[in-house]
Amino acid sequence: MKKRRKHKACLNCGELLQQKHNYCPNCGQENTDNHVSIGLLLREFTSNFFSLDSRFGRSFKPFLIRPGDLTNAFNQGRRVLYANPIRWYLVISIFHFFFLSKVFEPTIKDKQQRTFIGEDLELSEAEFDSLYNITDTTDSWPFSNEQQKLVNHLINHSSLPDEKIYDTLKLERSWISEFATKKSIRISRETTASLNAYILRQIPIIIFFILPIYAFLLKLFFWRKGLYIKHLIHSLHLHSFFFFVLGWIWVIALFYTPLKDSVGSIASLITIIYIVISFKRVYQQKTIWCILKLFMIGLIYAILLGITLLLGVLLSLALF
Q1: Do 126 and 232 belong to one domain?
Q2: Strand, coil or helix: what is 35?
Q3: Could you give the C-alpha distances from 85 to 11, 40, 45, 79, in angstroms and in order?
Q4: 12 burial type by CB count under 10 A (0-12 exposed, 13-18 middle, 19+ buried)
Q5: 176-188, pLDDT tens digit by residue?
């Protein structure tokens, strides 16, 4: 049987409780300590992911105008009152990338243009025979310009499957070269618009998996300020705010296109101010220390984020 460290009053609504109460009779929150586990966080997320109830609307005010208050409330045990942090992050990131796709909606040219490198020239019969009869083989990748021209021609002017196109290149059979070449041929069949849309859909997933690393950095720099799970919740709220601000600036950019070039800078500046205030309220430290720690965390995180995004995009293309 699960052991609970019970309280005399509900941490969420303040209702007085008896020892027999495993759940609050007023709001339904479990009567246990305020140290939420990762398992409980995930269970609460999966139990109500698809329902946008009053908790979602109730979370906006502290989230927007009181940086850090939503994190403090959740860490103090008021979990039923506000939206689950994982659910909150996913909904806001979906909102952001939806508007991002609208701002960078592909042109007719993008929808027609293929992604391969090089000019799409229709080869004469003599040029085709010359390229097709290349006798030199190589186990290196990427393949030569002549081989790229041959691939482009076969994609546009034949119905050959990828395997047959690969055979015409006459590459030496090494598994790395074969995998990379076939994947390149597969990607070459796609339009610029479809490939960009695919990569754009992967970015929120990639960033979601780096959130625990940011939480670890928070734990490292504020190591006396609670368990790791509390820093993870804070990390979810901070990333949610960045995507929320960025999303609304993208919306404005839909109507005022000159803003497109400054979207990232404006969102970053607003988020930096927000994070400093949030650090002060969550970790109870002086402004100067919050700024210094934010700078160091940001520097490390920017490097890790860049590496993770690069690896994530490469992995996404490998699985394409």
Answers
A1: no
A2: coil
A3: 18, 12, 8, 10
A4: buried
A5: 767 777 777 777 7
Other CB atoms within 10 A of residue 296 CB:
13
Tokens of 239: 């990333």
> Comparing C-alpha atoms, which of 278, 298, 296 is closest to residue 287?
278
What the block records as the tokens of 95 is 């909102």
* CA 11 to each of CA 34, 200, 234, 291: distance values in angstroms, whole numbers, following the listed order: 8, 40, 19, 32
First to last CA, the chain: 46
If one counts the domains in the chain, the total is 3
Q: Which residue from 290, 115, 311, 108 is spatially nearest to 205, judged by alpha carbons?
A: 311
Q: In terms of domains, do 15 and 67 share one? A: no
**Using one digit for the tens of pLDDT, what is the confidence trace for 82-131?**
888 888 898 888 887 777 766 666 554 554 555 544 444 455 555 555 55
pLDDT tens string 22-61:
777 777 676 665 555 666 656 655 555 545 567 778 888 8
Backbone angles phi, psi at 134, to 5 degrees: -60, 130
